[in-house]
Write a structure and sequence with these properties.
Helices cover 34% and strands 24% of the residues. With 572 residues, the chain is an alpha/beta fold. It has an eight-stranded antiparallel beta sheet with strand order 3-2-4-1-10-9-11-15. Helix 13 runs parallel beside helix 17. It binds fructose -6-phosphate (F6R).
C-alpha cells in the first residue's frame, strides 16, 4: 500500500512527467499524493493525483498514500521533510517504534501525525555528524517495522533508497534511474530492474547506482529483464473493471497456451512437487483465497488431498514441515500477510510454490517454483481477470491429476455470459437500493458465492454474505424478511433448490443464477449454458462480477478505486 517513486534523470523532466509515473502507482493507495524536487519544491494534497504547479527538474520523489497513521489530510500527505525543508522522504510501510525514535529527536519540529515523518528528522539529526550512507545504516539498524523509503536532498543530484518487508525496485532506463514500489511505475520506460532484498540500501545518480547491505558492504546485484503485458492505451470502456471483466476469455486463453508451451515444464514440476509432498496447503487472502478454495475442490475431485488457509491465520492453523508443499496464490505477489506466511513456511522447511501475476514480485522470488497466471496488468482495485486466471490455472493443475474438465472450452462459456448483460443490468437496477444481500451455493458454487459477496461489498458497497446453502438454516435464515434478496447459485444440486425454497417460503426474493431449465423457485433468472460444475462456477463468477459492476454504476460509485482500499496490501 502506498506507492513511492524516485527519479534521477540525465534530462530535465516536468511535474507532469512525474505525476504520470506516479499515476501508474495510484492503485496502491489514493488518499493523498505529493512530490518534492531537488530544487526544494514540495507539493502535496489530498484526493486525486493532479498537477499542483508546473516545474522542471532532474531529480524528484513522489508518493501516493493509503493512510495508516494519521488521517487523510494535506499535512499527513507525503513527502515529509526535516525541520529545514532540505531532506525529503517518501515512505511505504509502518515504522512501529516511531514514538520511541521521536522521543530521541527532541527539539525537532514535527508537522504531521504520521509515523513516516520521523525518518526525515532522524536523517537530519544523523547528518549533523555523518554522511548519508552511515545515517541510513543507523536507521535500518534502529527502526522497527516495515519500510520502503526514498530520500531526496535539496540541491542533491542523487537519491537514496532502503527497505525492509515493503517492496522496492530500481528501474534502469538508460537516461534515468527510477526507484519505485513496483515495476509497473516504469514498465513503459524499461524492462530492466534490480530488486531490493530486506535491509539493503542503494544510492543512485543519473548514470550510476550502487547497492549496499546494512553493514555498508557493496553488493553485486542481478539485473532482471521482465516481460509485462501492458493494458491497451485506448480505453473503450467506462471503467477498467468492465474492461477487465471482458478481457477474461482472452487472458484465460493466453494462460492455457502458456501452460502448453513456455510454462509446460513448470506445470510438470508443480505436479511432481505435489506428488512428492505429504501435505499440500494453499495460502492466500481475499479474492485469491476464494480461488484457492476452488483449487482445493478441483484437486479433491481428482483425488488429491489439499487444504487452504487464509495467510494471516496460517501460523495458528497449520503444522508445516519439510514434507509440506505450500502453494501461495497472489495477484500482486506483495501481500504482506502472505509474505509473512511464506517466510514462516520456509523457516519450517516447507517447499514453496506460487501462482503469481506480477513477475519477480516478492512472493515469486521467495518461491522454489512459481507459475505466472498471465493475467497482465489489472488496474481496477477489485480482482477480476486475475482471479479468473488463478482459477483456470488451478483447473489445469487438477486436470493433470485426472479432473475431467477441459479448461480450453471454458472461454466459450465465459463469452456466453456477456450475452446476458442486459438481463443482469435490469436485475442490478432492482437491487441498487438493497442494503443486504445473501448469496448461497453448494460444492463448487460455495467459493463462488463468497467471491461474489466480496465483490458486492468492495465495489457496490452492499453488505453481502456468501455462504454454504446448507448453513443458512443454522442461523442466517433469521435475517430473511419479505423481499430480502438472496442470489442462489443453482447448478443441479437438489439441496440448493430446497435451500432457495426455504428462503422463498419466508418472503425472500430469490435471484437464481442457474444452468437448470424450468426452474420455478425464482422469477429473476440469469441462465447460464454450462454443462459441468467448473464451467458453471466460472460463468457464475462473471455473472456476479457484472451484477456488482452494474449495481455500483447505478449508485454512481468510484468503481475502479473503491473507498478505503488499495490493490497491493503491503501492511499486516
Ligand atoms: C478483492 C481483491 C483483494 C485481493 C487481496 C489479495 O477484489 O482484489 O481481496 O484479492 O488483497 O491480493 P493478492 O492476490 O495480490 O495477494
Amino acid at each position: 500500500m502506498c506507492g513511492i517513486i524516485g527519479i534521477v534523470s540525465k534530462n530535465l523532466f516536468s511535474s507532469e512527467d512525474l505525476l504520470r509515473a506516479l499515476k501508474r502507482l495510484e492503485y496502491r493507495g489514493y488518499d493523498s499524493f505529493g512530490y518534492a524536487t531537488n530544487s526544494g519544491i514540495l507539493e502535496k494534497d489530498i484526493g486525486e493525483i493532479r498537477l499542483l504547479s508546473s516545474n522542471e527538474c532532474t531529480t524528484a520523489i513522489g508518493h501516493t498514500r493509503w493512510a495508516t497513521h494519521g488521517g487523510v489530510t494535506k499535512l499527513n500527505a507525503h513527502p515529509h521533510a526535516d525541520c529545514k525543508n532540505e531532506i525529503f522522504i517518501v515512505h511505504n510501510g509502518i515504522i512501529e517504534n516511531y514514538l520511541e525514535l521521536k522521543e530521541k529527536l527532541r527539539g525537532h519540529v514535527f508537522r504531521s501525525e504520521t509515523d513516516s515523518e520521523v525518518i526525515a528528522h532522524y536523517l537530519e539529526e544523523k547528518l549533523k555528524t555523518k554522511p548519508m550512507r552511515e545515517a541510513i545504516i543507523d536507521f535500518i539498524n534502529e527502526a522497527e517495522g516495515t519500510f520502503a523509503v526514498v530520500v531526496l536532498q535539496k540541491s542533491g543530484q542523487q537519491l537514496y533508497a532502503f527497505k525492509r518487508d515493503s517492496p522496492l525496485v530500481l528501474g534502469l532506463a538508460g537516461d534515468a534511474n527510477i526507484f519505485a514500489s513496483d515495476i509497473y511505475a516504469f514498465s513503459d520506460k524499461t524492462n530492466k530492474a534490480v530488486f531490493f532484498e530486506d535491509d539493503e540500501f542503494a544510492e543512485v545518480s543519473d548514470s550510476s547506482y550502487a547497492f549496499y547491505n546494512k553493514s555498508g558492504n557493496m553488493l553485486d546485484k542481478k539485473i532482471y529483464e521482465f516481460e509485462w503485458k501492458e493494458e491497451e492505451s485506448e480505453m473503450k470502456f467506462d471503467h477498467y473493471m468492465l474492461k477487465e471483466i471482458y478481457e477474461q476469455p482472452a487472458v484465460a486463453e493466453r494462460l492455457i497456451n502458456s501452460l502448453r508451451t513456455v510454462q509446460a515444464d513448470k506445470l510438470e514440476n508443480l505436479v511432481s512437487l505435489i506428488k512428492n509432498s505429504r501435505r499440500i496447503i494453499f495460502i492466500a487472502v481475499g479474492t485469491s483465497y476464494h480461488a484457492s478454495l476452488l483449487g482445493v475442490y478441483f484437486l479433491h475431485k481428482a483425488g488429491v488431498e489439499a487444504q487452504t488457509i487464509i495467510a494471516s491465520e496460517f501460523k495458528d492453523y497449520a503444522n508445516v514441515d519439510e514434507n509440506t508443499l505450500v502453494i501461495a496464490i497472489t495477484q500482486s505477489g506483495e501481500t504482506m500477510d502472505l509474505i509473512d506466511a511464506v517466510k514462516h513456511a520456509k523457516r519450517k522447511g516447507a517447499k514453496i510454490a506460487s501462482l503469481v501475476n506480477v513477475p519477480y514480485s516478492t512472493v515469486q522470488r521467495l518461491s522454489d517454483l512459481s507459475l505466472q497466471i498471465e493475467a497482465g496488468q489489472e488496474i481496477c482495485v477489485a480482482a477480476t481477470k486475475s482471479f479468473m486466471n488463478q482459477v483456470i490455472l488451478l483447473l489445469s493443475l487438477a486436470r493433470e491429476f485426472g479432473y475431467d474438465v477441459n479448461p480450453e472450452k471454458i472461454s466459450e462459456v465465459m463469452r456466453s455470459v456477456f450475452g446476458k448483460e442486459e438481463k443482469i443490468k435490469s436485475i442490478a437496477r432492482s437491487l441498487s437500493a438493497s442494503k443486504d444481500l445473501y448469496i448461497i451455493g453448494r460444492g463448487l458454487s460455495y467459493p463462488v458465492s463468497r467471491e461474489i459477496a466480496l465483490k458486492l461489498k468492495e465495489i457496490s458497497y452492499v453488505h453481502a454474505e456468501g455462504m454454504m446453502g446448507g448453513e443458512l438454516k443454522h442461523g442466517t435464515l433469521a435475517l430473511i424478511e419479505e423481499g430480502t434478496p438472496v442470489i442462489a447459485l443453482i447448478n443441479g444440486n437438489p439441496h440448493i433448490i430446497s435451500n432457495a425454497m426455504e428462503v422463498k417460503a419466508r418472503g425472500g426474493r430469490i435471484i437464481a443464477v442457474t444452468n437448470q431449465k424450468n426452474l420455478s423457485v425464482a422469477k429473476d433468472l440469469i441462465e447460464i449454458d454450462a454443462d459441468n460444475d467448473a464451467a458453471f462456477a466460472i460463468a457464475a463468477i462473471i455473472a456476479g462480477q457484472l451484477l456488482t459492476y452494474y449495481i455500483a454504476k447505478e449508485k454512481d460509485l468510484p468503481i475502479d478505486k473503491p473507498r478505503n482500499l488499495a490493490k497491493s496490501v503491503t501492511v499486516k
